[in-house]
């Protein structure tokens, strides 16, 4: 049995990065060789040295929406926090509401002094709320004005610039969290990578909070992943398949790009274009169909993301690398440093 506790490590709280670095690509980069477990230390801009002409770099171009709304219950004025998770139809969203206990169907909420109002329509099985919004004007503009970036709970500092929780290539709105491995890239660094003869390809997976939900079951096989929507264009699929067929390596930026490609690939490893929904859960024992290397951040203990990187590089190699990162005082989690597994 694969146990949740097999993926535990002790992390000093002061190593949790609270703010992004001024220069995106100045983060540190720990390089882990998946076959040997060997570790070396670099700066992120040196990522170029590990990509060769004819390789392919795959990035997730989802855009985070300012999905955290702070408001009040109509009638009582009690404070309420609402997090947009998924648009079900035009003005109806699946949301996470705090405190949820008293937000029953029929409850009305107000944001921005009434510029945006919402009514709870239903309580779903997992406790999330189905909500219908009412407003004058354009919803996205109101959200941009009233909403905050939905930073993870371990980040306690206020984000001064919304753009810093967004990749420079973010394009399609729909995520409740950033694909954080991509935060290290600048336009200049991507141009440098292209000039080296590396194919840069974009796929889309809208990140839901399910990715970060803790694993509660000790037997990890009993954990259920929440579905996330993805899209692979015909051009992206063709580019990845062409590089793979020519013997180039496929490097994914982040676990979301990895999960997208692995979900879209058939058993022969050929990526199929199209849109879909994935609940793929990658843990040790998984046989990768497309991926050769992964650029990722450092993840929470016992999380599905630590399990995914352990599937690629081996649990012991990953936990040893994490201990090395802790000794070397790397910065962890969303605004932290990066790791290349190759």
Summarize the structure.
The chain is an alpha/beta fold and 342 residues long. The protein has helices at residues 139-146, 187-195, 234-245, 254-264, 304-313, 315-327, and strands at residues 28-32, 39-43, 56-60, 62-64, 68-73, 79-89, 92-98, 108-111, 116-123, 129-135, 172-175, 199-205, 228-232, 250-253, 274-278, 293-297, 338-341.
What does this structure look like?
- α5 packs across α6.
- The chain has helices spanning 139-146, 187-195, 234-245, 254-264, 304-313, 315-327; strands at 28-32, 39-43, 56-60, 62-64, 68-73, 79-89, 92-98, 108-111, 116-123, 129-135, 172-175, 199-205, 228-232, 250-253, 274-278, 293-297, 338-341.
- It is an alpha/beta fold.
- It has six helices and 17 strands.
- β1 (28-32) and β2 (39-43) form a beta hairpin.
- Helix content is 18%, strand content 28%.
- The strands form three sheets. A nine-stranded mixed β-sheet has the order 2-1-17-16-14-3-12-13-15.
- It has two domains: 4-64 and 162-341, QueA-like (3-Layer(aba) Sandwich), CATH 3.40.1780.10; 68-146, Thrombin, subunit H (Beta Barrel), CATH 2.40.10.240.
């Amino acid at each position: 049995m694969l146990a949740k506790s097999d993926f535990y490590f002790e992390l000093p709280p002061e190593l949790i990065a609270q703010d992004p670095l001024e220069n995106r690509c100045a983060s540190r980069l720990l390089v882990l060789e998946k076959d040997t477990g060997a570790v070396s230390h670099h700066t992120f801009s040196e990522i170029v040295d590990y990509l060769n002409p004819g390789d392919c770099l795959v990035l997730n171009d989802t855009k985070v929406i300012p999905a955290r709304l702070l408001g009040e219950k109509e009638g009582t004025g009690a404070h309420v926090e609402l997090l947009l998770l998924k648009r079900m139809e035009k003005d109806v969203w699946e949301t996470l509401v705090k405190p949820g206990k008293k937000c029953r169907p029929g409850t009305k909420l107000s944001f921005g002094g009434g510029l945006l109002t919402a009514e709870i329509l239903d309580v779903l099985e997992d406790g999330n709320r189905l909500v219908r919004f009412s407003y004058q004007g354009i919803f996205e503009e109101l959200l941009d004005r009233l909403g905050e970036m939905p930073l993870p709970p371990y980040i306690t500092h206020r984000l001064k610039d919304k753009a810093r929780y967004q990749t420079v290539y973010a394009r399609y709105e729909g995520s409740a969290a950033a694909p954080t491995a991509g935060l290290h890239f600048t336009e200049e660094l991507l141009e440098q990578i292209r000039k080296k003869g590396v194919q840069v390809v974009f796929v889309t997976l809208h990140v839901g909070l399910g990715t970060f939900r803790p694993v509660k079951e000790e037997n990890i096989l009993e954990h259920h992943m929440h579905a996330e929507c993805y899209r692979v264009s015909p051009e992206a699929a063709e580019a990845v398949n062409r590089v793979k067929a020519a013997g180039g390596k496929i490097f994914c930026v982040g676990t979301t790009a990895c999960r997208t490609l692995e979900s879209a690939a058939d058993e022969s490893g050929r990526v199929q274009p199209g849109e879909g929904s994935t609940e793929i859960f990658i843990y040790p024992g998984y046989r990768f169909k497309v991926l050769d290397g992964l650029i990722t951040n450092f993840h929470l203990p016992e999380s599905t993301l630590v399990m995914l990187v352990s599937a690629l590089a081996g649990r012991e190699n990953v936990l040893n690398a994490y201990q090395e990162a802790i000794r070397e005082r790397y910065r962890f989690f969303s605004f932290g440093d990066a790791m290349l597994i190759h």
